[in-house]
Amino acid sequence: MTAQQSKFEAPKFRRRADERPDEVLDAALQLFLRDGFEATRVEDIAKIAGISKATVYLYFPSKVALLEGLVKRSISPVALMAENAMIQFEGSGQDAIRMALRLVSEKLSDPNIFGIPVLVMREAGRFPDLAKIYHDEVISHVLPAFKSVIVNGMASGEFREVDVELTIRNIVGPLILHVALGNIFEMGDNSADGLQTFLENHLYVLFNGLNKETRNDG
């Protein structure tokens, strides 16, 4: 090999090495969703990624580390984006909630993203480490931000007095359930348009209720 050939081929090799962790994660996600976390073998991940099993372990020392890598790559940025958006938002509480849910639902329309929380929900009961990873990387960022919006809304008089923790579940839960029903039971439409249609209906019911007239709690 000439010095000139080496000069031009080295950057290509470096790019390939830089891309390899993502290729491993792509292969892991494909098999995790198809076969389940427990049934997936590292050697099968390596085969799909086109590398050796030892190379997989070079980047990810365990299957749990692979799942953590998937969460950090695709879900953590969405959680941080929603958290920062709500913290920095200067409008009403309703608009802050609407903006955050729209942002999340837009990201969840990507199959490579919404497949990860579905995977965690499927497997967390048998693998507590997965639940902890998801809590630390996602839930611990999003829930306090929603809590702040609700507390501030009650303080300003925009929202009635409610149980904050339960209200957060009322806000976030339906979106999670919609995605889970679509992916696990093939019920509903999880396309970008389908998620937006669901979200608009959810927000309408959330802020207006089901009663035809406003209920008088006094």
Helices, strands, pairings?
Elements: H1 3-35, H2 42-49, H3 53-59, H4 63-88, H5 93-108, H6 111-123, H7 128-156, H8 164-184, H9 192-208
SSE series: HHHHHHHHH
Largest sheet: none
User: What is the overall pLDDT average?
Assistant: 86
CA-atom Rg in angstroms: 21 Å
Briefly, what CATH class of the largest domain? Mainly Alpha
**SS-derived structural category:** mainly alpha
Structurally, how many domains make up the residues?
2
In CATH terms, what is the fold-level topology of the largest domain? Tetracycline Repressor, domain 2
CATH superfamily heading of the largest domain: Tetracycline Repressor, domain 2
Low-confidence stretches: 3-15
**Gross CATH architecture of the largest domain:** Orthogonal Bundle
The amount of beta strand, in percent, is under 5%
Give the helix level as a range of percent.
over 70%
Give the N-to-C terminal Cα separation. 86 Å
Number of helices: 9
Backbone shape = elongated
Give me the count of strands.
0
Structural descriptors:
disordered N terminus; 9 helices; 218 residues; Arc Repressor Mutant, subunit A; mainly alpha; 0% strand; 2 domains
Q: How does this structure look, described?
A:
There is one protein chain. This protein has 218 residues and is an all-alpha fold. The longest helix has 33 residues, at 3-35. It is elongated and about 60 Å long. The chain has nine helices and no strands. It has two domains: 1-61, Homeodomain-like (Arc Repressor Mutant, subunit A, Orthogonal Bundle); 63-218, Tetracycline Repressor, domain 2 (Orthogonal Bundle).
